[in-house]
Amino acid sequence: MSDKTLYVCGAMFNEELTKLALIRKNRPEWQAGKLNFIGGHVEPGEMFITAMVREFWEETGVKTKKGQWRLFDIVEGPTSYVKMYTTIGDLTQLKTTTDELIFAVDLDDLPDLTAVPNLHWLIPAALKNLRNR
Prior knowledge:
With 133 residues, the chain is an alpha+beta fold.
């Protein structure tokens, strides 16, 4: 794993589990214009969960705590290692704080939206994790 770039991604749902916070990515190129979970790089020496809290705050302006995020999956590629987290929160507090737009998306609308390919199985996995809390 030491030769891979480390990332975190977080899926925040509303209390009713009907809406999800997503970001419209500008980069990397393969994600440009597509919706994805919110997250980013893990800094050297940083714990994954600390990176999740930091990245979510940096990109949405919403402060969360380590204890509210639950690991639900790990996605590993040839050059990347990504810990996937999920939580419930107040999506009305989300704001765009970077050049990538933040959205609260109704889950019923997702099939009509352009998203990164793995969201079709990551969203159900995140929801299952929350329903089993």
